[in-house]
Each structure stands twice: as structure tokens, then as C-alpha cells.
Amino acid sequence: MTDQSPIPFKPYRDDRVSFHRTEMAPILTVYGRFVAAGEWRDYGISALRDVAVFSVFRRTAENPVYRIEKRPKLRLKQGQYAVVGMDGQVLKRGHDLRQVLSVLERKLIRIVD
After folding, report:
1. pTM reported for the whole predicted model
2. Which InterPro entries does the record match to this protein (predicted)?
């Protein structure tokens, strides 16, 4: 039997950025409206070191139609929330998530004949 020193305990630190429950509620509300309208079918959530992304898909095997991003490093500058289109263009950026999501709400409103 060998005498080894114990391995020091390293506390678990999760440095990933993620959406909070209060942030997910308005995102899922908008998502639910588009699903009910038949526009969207799937979503994916990514929690990375510097950004959290909620991706929306028209079909499962496609590229995301929209990405809702949270970048905390930008909260004192342009705002930590952004809606990014399929082509990578930032559609709206700001400090208030509901205000940023309003750009998607406008796309849901259609003229009915």
C-alpha cells in the first residue's frame, strides 16, 4: 500500500452564461405564439462561457431562423440582449429583454383579408 497525499477538493465553478427563469418566461411566451401560428417548430439553448443563446428553428434540421442572445459583458454598453437574424444581422439590441423581443412580435402580426 502506498502513502499518497489526498487530492485537494476543487469546488465546482460554472462560468457559463445562462438565461434566468425570469428571462425564459418572455422568450417562451413569444416562442409559444409562433408555434401556435405554425411558424416555428423547434428550439435549442446553448450556455457558453461568454454568451447564452436561445435558437429558434423553422424545422429541426435547419439553421436557426433567429437567435436570442445574452452577452453580460455588453450590459453597460449596448445592452446585453440581442435578436440576431438568420444571416447574422442584429435586428435589435438593448437592456430590456421584452423591448428587444418586440421586434419578433411585429413579425407575427399579419393583415387578414
Report:
1. 0.79
2. DUF2794
What angle separates helix 97-108 from helix 21-36, to the nearest 10 degrees?
Answer: 0
Q: Grid coordinates representing 95?
A: 437592456
Confidence grade of residue 11 (pLDDT, cut at 50, 70, 90): low
The domain limits of the chain are: 21-106
Give me the chain's average pLDDT, please: 84
Instruction: Return the residue matching grid coordinates 485537494.
Output: 8
Cβ neighbourhood burial of 24 (10 Å; 0-12, 13-18, 19+): middle
Q: Look up residue 25 and give its three cell numbers.
A: 418566461
Angstrom distances, CA of residue 65 to CA of 30, 41, 93:
14, 11, 17
Select from 94, 95, 71, 67 the least CA-distant residue to 83: 67
What is the mean predicted confidence (pLDDT) over 44-50?
90
Gap between the Cα atoms of 43 and 54, Å rounded: 7
